Q: What sequence folds into this?
């Protein structure tokens, strides 16, 4: 009995079954119609389109702070502490996926930010101390923190 055809068939099936579906984007628009979510198949730096807009998968560094961060997928980010502290940043980032965030302390402290972030799912954030302190112009809705105090 020749085992080579069977071994070849098993290897071929494993390769096909484990390969990435090149037609499937690593990201998608979440059910809420706002949040851009990345699955595990995408790599940091990969780009993809949702509704004609090109997004980039990022990690903790988010590139340099001068870059356009309105079109990034933040699913892999866990710490955004002091990201915009003292900055003039005021762009719509309501599409950011923040479910994996744990740290958001002083994220917008003393900044010029004023955008609606009420749709952010921040249930896993455990440190949001001074999240938006010293931002009197921020009158639009903020995230609803349940595991920490943003003041």
A:
């Amino acid at each position: 009995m020749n085992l080579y055809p069977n071994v070849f068939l098993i290897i071929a099936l494993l390769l096909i079954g484990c390969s990435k579906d090149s037609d499937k984007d690593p990201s998608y628009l979440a059910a809420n119609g706002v949040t851009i979510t990345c699955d595990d198949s995408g790599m940091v730096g990969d780009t993809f389109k949702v509704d004609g807009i090109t997004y980039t998968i990022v990690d903790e560094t988010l590139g340099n702070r001068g870059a356009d961060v309105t079109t990034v997928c933040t699913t892999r980010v866990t710490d955004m502490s002091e990201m915009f502290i003292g900055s003039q940043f005021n762009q719509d980032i309501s599409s950011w996926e923040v479910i994996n965030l744990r740290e958001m302390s002083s994220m917008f402290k003393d900044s010029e930010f004023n955008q609606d972030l009420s749709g952010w799912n921040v249930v896993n954030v455990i440190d949001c101390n001074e999240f938006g302190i010293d931002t009197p112009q921020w009158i639009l809705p903020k995230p609803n923190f349940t595991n920490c105090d943003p003041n």
About this structure: Residues 25-151 form one domain.
